[in-house]
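Dear Dr. H.,

I hope your travels went smoothly. While you were away I took the liberty of generating a structure for the chain from your last submission, since the lab meeting agenda had it listed for discussion. I wanted you to have the full record in hand beforehand rather than looking at slides cold. The sequence, exactly as received, is reproduced here:
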Amino acid sequence: MGAWVFRAAPFVGAAIIMVMAAGCATSKVATPPQGDGATITVAALPSDDLAGLYIAQDDGLFAREGLHVIIEKIASSSAVIAAQLKGDVDVGAGSYVPYITAQAGSARFQILAEASTLGADTRVLVTTSRSPIKTVPELVGKKIGVNGTNSIGTLLIGELLEENGISPKKVDLVTDPAGFPAMPGRLQAGTWSAAFLAEPYVTIAEEDYGVQVLADLDQGATTDFPIDGYVVTRAWVSDHRDAAAAFVWAIEQGQALAETNPGLVEAAISKSDALPHEVTAVMALPGFPTGPVNQDRIQRVADVMLRLGLLDEKYTSEVQSGSLVKSLVSS
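The corresponding predicted structure, in token form, is as follows:
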């Protein structure tokens, strides 16, 4: 695979944003890249992990860089990979897990920017208020609803089970094709014994149905774990260099605002998912990384995937050497 030379402008822009946020001054300010009126379709999960995206849209940051961004909601990031490879979707905004799996095969993707890292109570396992299940070991032999098979939920649940001395094979993960918005109601109806939820749907499930949090997945080996990113095919980047640079520039600003202003996150999620203040005001928030994609952070995902068997053993050397993740991150 040939190397792709990415323009430095977006990362210079990220540095400028961070310096300005710290109250420092600089005598040289890079000129923001311009998207030249390009239209970009982003397939995005409905969760507060992508608040940087929604803020960039609502605050006109994309438009300022000459981009017209269309956001389409999806149930899981694994569902959009085929559409990206066919050219029907430009940017996938979601879990790294299916992209690492695809990259290990024949696909060639590029992470443009990070979106979120796990925070307390932002990804959890829940049960109904009347459930007899009170501990993680009691999940053995039970069905757990997830928004996507072999995605971040699979990884986080698998790691939680292993840390409790339980093989992940002893539970049955069942994918709900409608994703997070439908899952609280389906859990209440008895479709599964437990469900994997992300904010703001954790809060919705608590307020609408009184669900009980069985386990916060921000613990042990997955504390502060990298969750979502903005991913494109290398072919798309090759054909849309200016648009890619402008997109990253705008996302970096959205990320910085999300990290420092919870009120903006609340407003953006309230608008994007048509949620009431009672939900968005109390939902837990993830971390919103800024700056160049951190290879060491993404490597954590590949390491756990290999350990849990979400990646075939034949990719062991690529994972352990870091070459697999490097191919996703390097530019």
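Two observations you may find useful: The chain is about 40% helix and 20% strand. The chain has a mean pLDDT of 90.

With kind regards,
E. W.
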